[in-house]
Every structure is written in structure tokens, then in C-alpha cells.
Specification:
The complex is a heterodimer of chains A (203) and B (389).
Chain A lengths: L2 H8 L15 H6 L4 H25 L8 H23 L1 H7 L1 H4 L5 H11 L4 H31 L7 H5 L15 H20 L1
Chain B lengths: L1 H13 L9 H11 L24 H30 L6 H34 L6 H11 L7 H15 L13 H12 L1 H4 L22 H6 L8 H6 L11 H13 L5 H21 L3 H4 L4 H4 L3 H8 L10 H21 L7 H35 L1
Helix pairs in contact in B: 1-2, 3-4, 3-5, 3-11, 4-5, 4-6, 5-7, 6-7, 7-17, 11-15, 12-16, 16-17
Classes of the chains: A mainly alpha (203), B mainly alpha (389).
Chain lengths: 203, 389
């Protein structure tokens, strides 16, 4: 894999992260990260949708008439999202229940449309696939960090396992932070991640 | 003088190129704490750049005046903490015993608030190579005065750290924050650990080394929320011998502070007056509707209960976060008072509306100012056009 292709995967993880740098997809990242498990499932779903839709649109890019390209993109994305939704319902029904409308709302996730417009319409299929995977992972990384912090300090557990209770923290007076479960605190956490990232990238 | 010599001797080490150059902000802070700085407004590295009025009233003096104004409420609060304990557990303590007990309760809260907050302030000042701002001297004390006396200290420490970092330093430090940091700390506690911030078991501290069942004491607002009859008379609430947050129960003591702030011109009388008017009119409106007992409560009760007086005098008037224009101050204050009473009476989730009302209007203060200024420009333009015609 040459260095240009490697960049397609690596750049969106930090330097060109869809959430913290491009500030896209904030809504779902606040909504589904109260616990780690839904956050991970959401990250995987979005990665699959971005990667596959990027690939499909890139294959079709020379046959799509420019005037109706948004409709075509939407049809492809919706078809994929419905597929993902059905798979989630079939295999991880409880998580699918928790994510509720947010799986369907992947269609409106700005990252998906943004990558289709900015990259897949003008690049070769394999590059587009890599770009989709990279951006999906970049989105996923932030979701997993948020889900980890919020579930750990908000509910005292990880992946549903009551870790703080087993450590005996509640016996010495520790309490879960109710604020961190709420959406405003998720936004503040995203802000803190952006802060750390920018000051690190500047230096 | 000994201390002067001491600082002069150390100064070269902390100046540029000296051994402890990295700690220059810390040195500067202690020197300015011990002596009047020989610079006036406009001399700061960044804080007051661009100011055209060179006045000896600097931030340090402003904050010290606020701290002095807080003293009556603080001293009364200490006594009241002991008094409430003594009453609730029928201990029949004397005056000084009550005060001493309250002092011992209050001291750790103040120390934690100051140590955590100032440590973070010093850290940020050193990282940014700025002077340490005096702003936290006031904020730290106010935070300690608006929490329940039984607050676990580690929770307080987290809240103070959150307020200083997210409420203030991310925006650039004292003078750049748009939310009142003390209220950010309280709001953080309120939403993070609701069981320690409301209810009727948090307002009265148990005596030291007490092992029996805790006695509960509800605040007037808590009783109203639960549709119970008020146990305190209006006079009790005015003097402040009721359960409540550590130092905000006594309207008398707060009024003493208010007089000092108004005489020295540090707090805006427009804001204070308009908060009172706003709360009063809202109370009267509810009286006119009178749908339930809470609405029929005489409007002046709202001034006496909870944090209305404290918020009105010490927090709504915070010059950094309040509206800056004169007509803006009237709107800002009026809406704070109105929203505070509205939240109290109509919202079943929050017994006290003052904190949220002030934070909400803090967010809107810049917008209010913008509208006032824009309207003024338009008015003058019209006047000018008329003259030209």
C-alpha cells in the first residue's frame, strides 16, 4: 500500500477527523454515546455504510448524471442503512432498540453525504473504499472514547459490567456523575477532545 | 520593611532570564497579594490592554470589596449552620458554640474551594505566561457560600475544577467568561449529584461524632414544592434562621453587603432593582391567577426564600457576565427575576429557579447588548437624517 493510500485511512483518524475537525455528525455522537456498547455498534454501522456507499457511488460515478446525483446518492445510502438496520434487528435486538431512530438517521449523517460528494464522485473505487473506512473509523474513535468515558463515570460500568461496584468504590463514598449521562456533557467532552487534539497538533 | 526586602531579593530570580523564570506568574501573584502593585489599569500584560482610563481601582480592589461585602452573609451563615444543628438535634448550644461549630463545618468547604480553584488558576497562568488574576478570590468564596453544608468535599472539588476550567479558562480566564463560574460550579453539582443538592436531608449538618439517625430539615422552597405548609415565618426567612445553602439564607446580612456594593459603585443598582421588580411582578401575576397554593403565596415571599436575594446582589450583578449597556441591564435584570419566580412556581423538577435564571440570562446578555446598541444606532441615524432633510 503506498503512502497516499495510507493517508486516506490515517488522516481522518486525527488530523482530518470528521467530528473534531470537520465538526460533522455531532448529533448522533451526542445521542448514542451514553453507553459503550451502542456507541461501538453505531461506529461499526456508520463505517460500513460510509465505506460501501463510497465504493458503490465511485463505481457508478461516470454514469450518474450530475443533475440528479444527490438523489442517486440518497438511494444508495438509504438502501445500505435499511440493510444495516435489518441486520442489527436480527442479531443484536437490544442494542438496536437502544439506538432506535439513530440507525435510520445515518442517512442524514453529514459525514456520509460529505464523503460521497467530496471524494467518491471524483476518485477510483478502491481509494473511495479506503477513504470511507478511514472516515468511518475516525468517527468511530470519537464515539468509542465518548462512550467509554460517559459509561465509566456516568454509570460506573463498562460494556454493562459494573466495574466500579466490583472495585468497591461505592463503599468509600464514590457516586456516579448524573451530568455526564446528559447530552450537554457529551458536547463539553467533544469540546475537550478538540481542545486536547488542537493543542497537540499545534505543538 | 522585611517583606519588601524579601520580595526585592527574590525578584531577579523570577524575572526574565532568572533561575525560576517559569514561576514568574506565581511570584507576581504573591507580590501583588502582599503589596499594592505599582501599576495601574492598563499596565497588565493582557488583561486591560486598550483601556483609556488609568484608574487606581484595579481588579484586586474590586474583588476585595466584593469579599468584604460577602462577610456579613458568611459570618451569619457560619452561625446559622451551628444554630440549625443545635435546633434540629435539640442540643441547646450557646451562641459561640453554635458559631464555632458552623465555622468548623464551613472551613473545609472554603479551603477546598480555594485550593482547587487557585491551583488551576496558577497552572493556567504559568502555562500562558500571564499574571494570575484575582477573580477567583471572589468566586471561590461564593462557591463555598451557595452549596449545602453537607456537600461531600470531593464532589465540591470536581465541581470547582469544572467551573474554573470549562466555565472560565477555556474562554481565556477572568473577564472573558460568559457564564458566572460560581453558578457553573453549583449547576454542575446540581445536575451531577442531585441527591446531595436538593431534598430535605442535606441542609442540616449532624453534630460532630454523632452516630444516630440524621434529622431532616426542609427549606421553605422544598416545603412549597411538596405542597407542605411553610414552617418558617416571613420574619424568620428575612433574618435567615432557616435551613438552606450555607450562607445565603439571611436577607439582612445580604442587604448589608448590597449597601456596600452600591455605595462603592461596584454592583449595578439597575440590575439589582430590575431583578427585584421582575420577580415581584411575576409573583403578583401568579397571585392574580391563583390556581394553586403556591401561586397564592404573597409575592414578597419570593425575595426571602432560597437564593433570590443572594443571586440578585452578588451573582446577577457580576460585571463580566451581566449586560453592559444601561437599558440592557434593565432587561437583563427584569428577566432574571421573572424567570426565577416562573421556574420556582411552575417547574416541578427544580425547586429553586434563581441559579438557572441567571445562567440563562448570562447566555443572553451579549444578545441584549447587541440589540440595545443596534437600536441606538438606528435611532441616532434617523435623527441625523431628519436634520439633513
Amino acid at each position: 500500500m503506498n503512502s497516499n493510500r495510507k493517508k486516506l485511512i490515517v488522516n481522518p483518524l486525527s488530523k482530518d477527523n470528521p467530528i473534531t475537525v470537520q465538526v460533522l455528525g455531532i448529533c448522533s455522537c451526542l445521542a448514542v454515546t451514553a453507553q459503550l456498547k451502542p456507541a461501538v455498534v453505531m461506529a461499526i454501522s456508520v463505517t460500513v455504510v460510509i465505506a460501501l456507499s463510497n465504493l458503490i457511488i465511485s463505481l457508478l460515478r461516470n454514469t450518474i448524471p450530475p443533475r440528479i446525483r444527490i438523489i442517486v446518492q440518497l438511494v444508495v445510502v438509504s438502501a445500505l442503512v435499511i440493510l444495516v438496520n435489518q441486520i442489527l434487528m436480527a442479531f443484536v435486538y437490544d442494542v438496536s432498540k437502544q439506538l432506535s431512530v439513530y440507525v435510520g438517521l445515518i442517512i442524514t449523517n453529514c459525514i456520509v453525504m460529505g464523503r460521497l460528494e467530496a471524494f467518491a464522485m471524483t476518485n477510483k473505487p478502491f481509494d473511495s473504499l479506503l477513504d470511507g473506512v478511514g472516515n468511518g473509523l475516525g468517527y468511530g474513535i470519537i464515539l468509542v472514547i465518548l462512550g467509554f468515558v460517559r459509561e465509566l463515570f456516568g454509570s460506573g460500568s463498562l460494556w454493562g459490567y459494573p466495574i466500579f461496584e466490583k472495585l468497591g468504590l461505592y463503599n468509600i463514598g464514590y457516586e456516579n456523575n448524573g451530568f455526564i449521562i446528559m447530552a450537554p456533557m457529551a458536547l463539553i467532552l467533544v469540546g475537550i477532545i478538540i481542545w486536547i487534539q488542537r493543542s497537540r497538533n499545534e505543538a | 520593611m522585611f517583606i519588601r526586602d524579601f520580595f526585592d531579593k527574590l525578584k531577579p530570580d523570577f524575572s526574565k532570564g532568572g533561575r525560576f523564570e517559569k514561576l514568574s506568574s506565581t511570584f507576581e501573584a504573591f507580590e501583588s497579594f502582599a503589596f499594592t502593585p505599582n501599576t495601574v489599569t492598563g499596565g497588565g500584560k493582557r488583561a486591560f490592554k486598550g483601556s483609556h482610563i488609568r484608574d487606581a481601582v484595579d481588579l484586586k480592589r474590586t474583588i476585595i470589596t466584593v469579599v468584604v461585602a460577602l462577610m456579613p452573609a458568611l459570618l451569619f451563615g457560619m452561625w446559622n449552620i451551628g444554630h440549625q444543628t443545635s435546633m434540629a438535634y435539640s442540643l441547646e448550644w450557646g451562641f459561640w458554640q453554635e458559631f464555632w461549630n458552623g465555622f468548623l463545618r464551613m472551613l473545609p468547604i472554603i479551603v477546598v474551594s480555594y485550593v482547587v480553584g487557585l491551583t488551576i488558576e496558577f497552572l493556567f497562568a504559568e502555562i500562558r505566561h500571564e499574571e494570575v488574576s484575582e477573580g477567583f478570590i471572589g468566586t471561590g468564596l461564593i462557591i463555598a457560600m451557595i452549596v449545602p453544608v453537607t456537600i461531600p468535599l470531593w464532589q465540591l472539588a470536581i465541581a470547582v475544577a469544572f467551573a474554573v476550567v470549562i466555565g472560565k479558562e477555556v474562554f481565556g480566564g477572568s473577564g472573558y467568561n460568559f457564564l458566572n463560574p460560581a453558578l457553573v460550579a453549583r449547576a454542575f453539582l446540581f445536575f451531577s449529584y442531585p441527591s446531595h443538592m436538593s431534598g430535605d436531608s442535606v441542609w442540616v449538618a449532624a453534630p460532630f461524632r454523632y452516630a444516630g439517625d440524621a434529622v431532616t430539615g426542609a427549606t421553605p422552597l422544598g416545603q412549597l414544592m411538596a405542597s407542605q405548609p411553610l414552617s418558617a415565618s416571613a420574619l424568620d426567612m428575612f433574618i435567615g434562621t432557616i435551613p438552606g445553602s450555607t450562607c445565603e439564607t439571611s436577607v439582612v446580612a445580604i442587604l448589608l453587603g448590597a449597601i456596600l456594593l452600591l455605595v462603592t459603585g461596584i454592583a449595578s443598582w439597575r440590575i439589582m432593582l430590575s431583578v427585584v421588580i421582575g420577580g415581584g411582578l411575576m409573583g403578583l401575576l401568579f397571585n392574580a391567577i391563583g390556581a394553586n397554593e403556591y401561586m397564592q403565596l404573597p409575592f414578597y415571599y419570593h425575595y426571602l426564600m432560597g437564593g433570590f436575594a443572594f443571586g440578585c446582589v452578588f451573582m446577577a450583578t457580576d460585571p463580566v457576565t451581566a449586560a453592559q449597556t444601561n437599558s440592557g441591564k434593565w432587561i437583563y435584570g427584569f428577566l432574571i427575576g421573572a424567570f426565577a419566580v416562573l421556574l420556582r412556581v411552575l417547574n416541578p423538577a427544580y425547586p429553586e429557579g434563581m441559579m438557572l435564571a441567571i445562567l440563562l440570562m448570562n447566555c443572553f446578555a451579549p444578545l441584549i447588548d447587541h440589540c440595545v446598541v443596534a437600536r441606538n444606532i438606528k435611532k441616532r441615524q434617523k435623527r441625523w437624517e431628519r436634520r439633513i432633510m
